[in-house]
Every structure is written in structure tokens, then in C-alpha cells.
Automatic annotation (TrEMBL):
NCBIfam families for this protein: PRK08203.1
Domain called Amidohydrolase-related: residue spans: 67-406
EC number: 3.5.4.32
Keyword list, A-Z: Hydrolase
UniProt key word NADP: no
Pfam families: Amidohydro_1
Record's protein name: 8-oxoguanine deaminase
GO molecular function, one term: 8-oxoguanine deaminase activity
CDD domains reported for this sequence: ATZ_TRZ_like (cd01298)
Domain of life of the native organism: Bacteria
Cited InterPro entries: Amidohydro-rel, Metal-dep_hydrolase_composite, Metal_Hydrolase, MTA/SAH_deaminase
């Protein structure tokens, strides 16, 4: 595709670092090497790289570092980067009511600036595969999904664009203003157009598109049902919010006569090609259904806490065989905007539950953020672990500085310590971060443009009353 990041050429050797491969055996090396050839991992092993390698264009001394697969983000709303810090003491529904009137005034330049901010923050923090769920399409706002795709291409991050939709406005009992929702036919047509224009199913693709009606309380049953049919006809994945709050469960019982999971199953929304965001209020029967159908879950611990949604039963999900990844979620409900926080909070918050210290280990938390996310996005054969033949999406974390030097276990240092600096992050074998800075974009320009668009949006929303 024209906007796809070119693959690297020549070999890159990274050696003398600790390595957590996150492969099926959780292989680790106290001191090891990775050889990258073009956009693929050629070899991983203990000690220094083999001698006599040809066409080596770069050697990296990883002393004092940990090398891991790149982090995979499985749920986000980029546009919220320009509405951070609002409604800070609200639960989810009150938060949505407070913010929808502002979000309904988004336009293409705002979404582009917000996407650059969201992607830049994640990339700086070790994310190599990003995902976004954009579902707010005000009339006349421009090409909002295209703005996000353009931003991801510029920053060099692998991307899943989940084309969202809403067709239940306030007049139909939904939360968003009527002028910010689409018609059933319009939403389906635009989603299909996005798939045809942008989805690349090839191995190593930089861009996937998913079908993603927003949530049961903002979407009609027909949009859910026909959205699933569209996704399967086109061979793409499905994504939505599920079982996020107790209010949602009550809503589903009142409107559909069943809980969220039973409702999703009734409209074709359980299966290996589906993943749901949050999955906080899950019964034993819900977890069994997700495990039986291999429906995935995007765990967003910081956002769940921010809007007082609750704690997802991640240990029970994993025990049931459910694919679970981590999500930043929108930065209006997770102002830090980076995924390392979710490694740490997934471990800590789940230990507050019934499983206590046995809920998650540091390595299980790292797996959620790497291979778990790759499974959820349907990319486990391409990324999520350091193995020969997989894509060269890798992150070298600096652990010999003041924040980490006294923690002997590098994985514990990464997961439990402060956010570790990223010395090098490669996507497709090409650097997107070097020494903690983006390589393909001006961070000061990103910050300035995002601030300007945030102020413009706030002014427009205030004038609209």
C-alpha cells in the first residue's frame, strides 16, 4: 500500500542485553543477542551474536538493557488526547454525558493532531502495534479515520484502525447528540468503504481495519448484526465495548431481556475474530462463553479505575483460555496515554481481587502487553514474541539508570518499576524511537499542534453551549 512503512534492509545486531522472548516457553537470557535481517527476526539466542555475519548495517551494545517484543495496544480512542483532564470525578455514564457534546464538534484537523499525540506518547513508551476505536463521526467533519491512518503512517507504528459507528442518538435513548451519529445504512457503507480503501491482509501489513460499532447502548441491534455480517464477508475482525459497567448490564436486561454476553452471542458477536474492550462485569457463564468461543478481551485497568467501572476478572479469563491483551483506552479516561502504566496496573489492581498475590506475575503482565495483545488483534503469527521469522518489532529498555539499577530481575524492573526509558524501538526493522525520542516526528510540534486543537475544540464547544 502507498502509505505502508518500507521494510528495513541489511542486518541489525543487538547483543549483550537481557532478553525476554515471551515465546511459548517464556525463554529468557541473562545475556543474549537478536539478529534482525530486513524486517524479520533472523535469530535469538544466548551470548553474543555469531561471528561472520554479512551486511550488518548496525550493531547495538545492549549492556544494562532488557530486550522485549514491542508492546501491543488493543483498545484506544485517539481523539480524546485533546479532551484530557475533564470530568475527573465522574463515573462512566456521567463522564460520557459531560464529554459527548464536546466530542460531537470534532473535525479532521483535531483528530489528526490528537492521533499524533496519542501515537507519539505510546511509541515513546514501547508500543510498536497500536489500535484505535474511532466511532464519533459528526456530519461534515472530514475524513476522520483517514486522519488517524495518516498519523500512524507518519510515525511508523503498525496500526489497526477499528472503524466505529453509532446510530442511536439522544432521540432514540442513546447518549450522543443526534447530529454526531450516523444512519444504519450510512455507517455500514462507510465501514465497508474504509475496509476496501485501507485494509491490508498481507503478512507484515502495517495497516488493518476492523468493524467496530461502539457499544450496546449507542448502537441498534441491526447495526450490530449487520456489522458482524459485513466483517465476516470482508474477512476482518470485530471490536466493541462489552460489559464495562453495571449500568450497561442493567440496560441490556431492560432493552434486550438478557445480559451483555448473551446479547452479543444473539447477534453474532462471539468468536475468534472478535475482541471486546473492558469486560469488567463478567459472570462465570460469561467467562465460559468467551473461553468456549475464544472471544478476546482488552483489559484497561487504569481507565476502569478512572471512571469507577470496576476490576475485570483477568486471572479467571486467562484460566478459561480467553485471549487477553492490554489497552490504554481513551486519554480522557487515562491521561498518561501510554501502555507501560497498564503492565504495572494490571498486576497491582488484579492483586486487590480474590486471587491476591496469585492473581498475576510480572511475566504474565508482560505477556498481556505483548503476545496477549498480538493474539487479540489476530497477529500472533507475526509479532508479540521474539522468535526467528517474526516481524522485527522490538524494544530495548534501559534498566541501568537511577530508576531501575537496584532491581536484579529485569522483567520485574520493567513491570514494577517506573516507566523505563526506551533506548531503541524498531517497527519492521526501522527505528521509531531512539534514546527516548521519536525519530520520525517533531515532538515539540506534536505537542504544540495538539494544544492548539484542544483549545480550538474547547472554544467551539463552549460557544455551542
Amino acid at each position: 500500500m502507498a502509505d505502508q512503512q518500507a521494510a528495513a534492509t541489511g542486518r541489525i545486531v543487538i547483543e549483550k542485553c537481557a532478553i525476554a522472548t515471551v515465546d511459548a516457553e517464556d525463554t529468557e537470557y541473562a545475556t543474549g543477542h537478536v539478529v534482525i535481517n530486513g524486517n524479520r527476526i533472523e535469530s535469538v539466542g544466548p551470548g553474543d551474536a555469531p561471528g561472520g555475519l554479512r551486511h550488518v548495517t548496525r550493531r547495538v551494545d545492549g549492556t544494562g538493557h532488557l530486550l522485549t517484543p514491542g508492546l501491543v495496544n488493543t483498545h484506544h480512542h485517539f481523539y480524546q488526547w485533546i479532551t484530557r483532564g475533564l470530568a475527573t470525578d465522574s463515573n462512566l455514564f456521567d463522564w460520557l454525558v459531560a464529554l459527548y457534546p464536546t466530542w460531537a464538534r470534532l473535525d479532521e484537523e483535531m483528530v489528526y493532531a490528537a492521533a499524533r499525540g496519542s501515537l507519539g506518547m505510546m511509541a515513546r513508551g514501547g508500543v510498536t502495534t497500536a489500535m484505535d476505536h474511532h466511532y464519533v463521526f459528526p456530519r461534515g467533519a472530514g475524513d476522520l479515520l483517514g486522519a488517524e491512518i495518516r498519523a500512524a503512517g507518519e510515525l511508523g507504528v503498525r496500526f489497526t484502525a477499528a472503524r466505529g459507528s453509532m446510530d442511536r442518538g439522544t432521540s432514540d435513548g442513546g447518549l450522543p447528540p443526534d447530529f454526531a451519529v450516523e444512519t444504519l445504512d450510512g455507517a455500514l457503507a462507510e465501514t465497508e468503504r474504509a475496509i476496501d480503501a485501507h485494509h491490508d491482509a498481507s503478512f507484515g501489513s502495517m495497516l488493518h481495519v476492523a468493524v467496530a460499532p461502539c457499544s450496546p447502548f449507542s448502537v441498534s441491534t441491526e447495526l450490530m448484526r449487520q456489522g458482524a455480517e459485513l466483517a465476516r464477508r470482508k474477512g476482518v475482525r470485530l471490536h466493541t465495548h462489552g460489559s464495562e459497567t453495571a449500568q450497561e448490564e442493567k440496560f441490556c436486561h431492560e432493552l434486550f431481556g438478557m445480559g451483555p454476553t448473551d446479547y452479543f452471542e444473539s447477534v453474532g458477536w462471539l468468536g475468534e475474530d472478535v475482541w471486546m474492550a473492558h469486560c469488567v462485569h463478567m459472570t462465570d457463564a460469561d467467562i465460559e462463553a468467551f473461553g468456549r468461543t475464544k472471544t478476546g478481551a482488552a483489559h484497561c485497568p487504569s481507565s476502569n479505575a478512572r471512571v469507577a467501572a470496576g476490576t475485570a476478572r483477568v486471572p479467571d479469563m486467562l484460566a478459561a483460555g480467553i485471549p487477553v491483551g492490554l489497552g490504554v483506552d481513551g486519554t480522557a479516561s487515562n491521561e498518561s496515554g501510554e501502555l507501560h502504566t497498564e503492565l504495572r496496573n494490571a498486576l497491582l489492581i488484579n492483586r486487590l481481587g480474590v486471587h491476591k498475590e496469585n492473581a498475576l506475575t510480572t511475566r504474565e503482565a508482560l505477556r498481556l502487553g505483548t503476545m496477549g495483545g498480538a493474539r487479540v488483534l489476530g497477529r500472533a503469527q507475526e509479532t508479540g514474541s521474539l522468535e526467528a521469522g517474526k516481524l522485527a518489532d522490538v524494544v530495548l529498555w534501559k534498566l541501568d539508570g537511577i530508576g531501575h539499577s537496584t532491581i536484579a530481575d529485569p522483567v520485574a524492573a520493567l513491570v514494577l518499576g517506573a516507566a523505563a526509558p526506551v533506548t531503541l524501538s524498531l517497527v519492521n526493522g526501522l527505528p521509531v524511537v531512539e534514546d527516548g525520542r521519536l525519530t520520525r516526528a517533531d515532538e515539540d510540534d506534536i505537542a504544540r499542534c495538539a494544544r492548539d486543537e484542544a483549545r480550538r475544540l474547547a472554544k467551539i464547544a463552549a460557544e455551542a453551549g
